[in-house]
Amino acid sequence: xxxxxxxxxWPYANGPRHIGHVxxxxxxSDVFSRYMRMAxxxxxxxxxxxxxxxxxxxxxxxxxxxxxxxxxxxxxxxxQDLVDLGLSYDLFTRTTTGNHYRxxxxxxxxxxxxxxxxxxxTLSAISPSTGRTLPDRYIEGTCPICGYADARxxxxxxxxxxxxxTDLKDPRSKINGETPEFVETQHFFLDLPALxxxxxxxxxxxxxxxxxxxNVIKFSRNxxxxxxxxxxxxxxxxxxxxxxxxxxxxxxxxYVWFDAVIGYLSASIEWARxxxxxxxxxxxWNTDPDSGGEPLSxxxxxxxxxxxxxxxxxxxxxxxxxxxxxxxxxxxxxTLQLPTEVVSxxxxxxxxxxxxxxxxxxxxxxxxxALFPGLGSxxxxxxxxxIVMLEVLGPAAAYFAxxxxxxxxxxxxx
Length: 414
Prior knowledge:
By secondary structure, this protein is of the alpha/beta class. It has helices at about 20-25, 25-40, 55-65, 65-85, 100-115, 195-210, 215-225, 255-275, 305-320, 365-370, 375-390, 395-405, 410-414; strands spanning about 5-10, 40-50, 90-95, 115-125, 140, 150, 170-175, 180-190, 230, 235, 255, 295-300, 340-345, 350, 355. The strands form five sheets. The protein has a five-stranded parallel sheet, sandwiched between helices. The chain has a three-stranded antiparallel sheet with strand order 4-8-9.
C-alpha cells in the first residue's frame, strides 16, 4: 500500500464555477482518487476555496458587500456544486481558516529564515481612479516578446513567457481600461534563481519517469530557462499578514498564489486534526524513516496554473526544506515531499472557443447539475468501473462494463 495525495486545484471564490473548471481539476482528480482507493492505496484527496486576492475584492465592491461576505456566499455555492457532482474529497476547506493562516505563516518565516525571501524595491501598478493595487492578471497589454495584443501582466498566453506588468507595451486595466500608474514599493521576493538548480534536478527526475504529459514538462522546462525572483507580497489589505516585525501592521499581505498552493499542506493538517490524529498528515508529506517509503502526490489543475505547481510550489517546498544555493534547514513540518506529478488538461472548449464567464460563453456547474440530476455519481462510477475493468481484465471487459451501465454501443466502443 502506498500513501497517495490527490491535490486538487482550489477553485477561486469570486463566483460560481463552470464546467470548464471542473473538467480541469474536478472530474480527473475524482476518477483518479477513486481508482487508487480501489487499487488498495491510502488516498488523501484535499482542496478548498481560494478566498484571497484583489479579484475577490473587485467582485465584492461590484456587489456592495465585504470580501468575507462574498467568500462565504461563493464557498457555499461551490461546495454545493461539487456535492452535486459527487466528488469524493476527504476534506474541502477554505483559505480563510485560522489553520491555513498558521501553516502559511510558518512556511513564510522558515523560507525567510533560510534566506530565500529577499526584500526588494519594485514598481506596483495602481488604479488611478480607486488607488487600489491592480493584480498582475488584471493588467493587459502587448507582449514585448511576440507582440500578442492581449498578454497579461504575469504571462503571455500566446508565447507562454512570464512577464511583469512593466514589461507590457501600452498597459491597461482589465477592470475599466484605464492606464495604471506605477509607484515604488517594498516587497518580499522568492529567490527563484537560488532554487533553479534544485528545480532543474527535480524536473530531470520527473521527465525521466516518463509519466508527465508532454505539454506540462515542456512548459515547465521553458519557464525554468527564464527564471527570476518573483514577488510574494502585495499592497492590499485582504489576505494573510506578513509575519515579521515591522510588516504585520502594514497594508501589505502575502501574495494569493504564495498562500493558495500551501493549501494542499494546510488542508492535510486540518484533515488529520479533525480526525483526532494530528500527526497523521505526515504519512502523505514526509518520508517514513523506518520503511524508507516515499508518499506519492498528484496535482490536478487547468493548463493556466501549471507555472504555480511546477515552479512556485516546488520552489516554496525546496526553500522550506533548505535545498537551494543558500542551504538552510526545515521548520516544524520537517522535509516536505515534492510533487510526483503535475496533471494538467487543455482547456475545455465550446463551439471551438474557450469558456469565459466574463464573455458569457459558459455553462455553469449548477445549470448542468439541474439539467442532469445525479450526473456526478453516475459519471464517476461508470468511468472508474471501466478503468478497473480495463486494468484487470482488458478492453473487452471495459466495453461490457460501459454497456451494462447504460451507454450506447458506439460510446462504449470509443
